[in-house]
Amino acid sequence: MLFNKGNMTMTAPVLVKDEILDELLGDNKSAEDLFGKDGLLKNLSKRLMERLLEAEMTSHLGYSKHDSEGNNSGNSRNGKSKKTIKTGNGKIDISVPRDRESEFEPALISKRESRLTGINDNVLSLYSKGMTVRDIQDHLMEVYGTSISRDLISTITDAVLEDVKAWRCRPLDEVYPIVFIDGFVAKCRLDGRVENRTVYVVFGINLNGEKDVLGLYLGAAEGAKFWLSVLTELKNRGLKDIFILCADGLKGLPEAVEATFPKATFQTCVVHMVRHSLNYVPYKEKKAVAADLKKIYHSDTVELAEQALDDFEITWGDKYTAIVRSWRNNWDKIIPFLDFPKEIRSVIYTTNIIESLNRTLRKAVKNRGQFSTEDGLMKVLYLAIKGVSKKWTMPIRDWKLALNQFAIMFGDRFPDNFLS
After folding, report:
1. Which residue of 112, 221, 251, 380 is surrounded by the most CB atoms within 10 Å?
2. pLDDT tens digits for range 241-255
3. In-domain check, residue 124
């Protein structure tokens, strides 16, 4: 039974009475009796599927088996055919009813199909975690006793390419208050040689405080021309305004932002600054250095932040000169967010939003090793994003407070009546 909860359609759990369970269990006592190769679960699955197919045939013909209404109806049952199908519980041999006119098309398992959708779901789930074709084959054989060919796995995963294409071209919201751009390296075998290519992830937070991956881009080389093409594509998909764009020191990006979204505030990502700084610090001192860096970007004013940076240099400057130099060289791009209220700042420098997504994508890519085509890479990343985004069910923390501050600071650019 289906019912609605908010905007989601939920499936009510199927309840089975204890009396029926007791009857089904009978003398079956062990795990092998229940879940083994020829156990109760497999036999029950077979009976249920055959029962459902019989019900589908009755619906197709319009009368029950042996019912007199079928006389001279123009079509009738015509025996059964054997079929072996692959399910999440292994192979099951079933009998499929036929009709004389060969018009019956079962919804449970199509004529030309040999597997239930559960197999497809399993393959896509394993593929999204970065497992290779061989790994998927071994896993399905070990867990379900089901053999599946490399070609079939490719067919199942290639079917996702249309979804990937539609997803990468889908319309975007007109306004994203905050957009992050980050990148990570993937190994690709292109033009006959293996090389590192950077995958850039454009990640936004919409007016409802919901997380959204706006796009994935495989960059051959950074530069204003590349970033201009990326940002122009986002505009062509409907994005009209960004309040704050956070990124690391990506070559040519500030100039491209100025050309496409001139009103956007460009902010060096504090998460990246901290991460980059801690790369210079041994484990035993990371906690202390991170705490002193936090004093800088948690300051109430630019003046206090400058004082905190001076204090950091006094404490750590001799040992970590590179950290001090990096913060001072990027200071003009670090401090813009200090003009914003703390409700907005906390969204900008939070690490959870970006780190969680990147961890998932890096893991999926790392497990695969290298990719021979861009399509193969995008399939894995798309499925990984699809999986992790299922957890994005709530707005980010304290979003309403931040949204009200955005409405005040960007009143002339804020959508009319959004808060009403």
Report:
1. 380
2. 999 998 887 888 999
3. yes
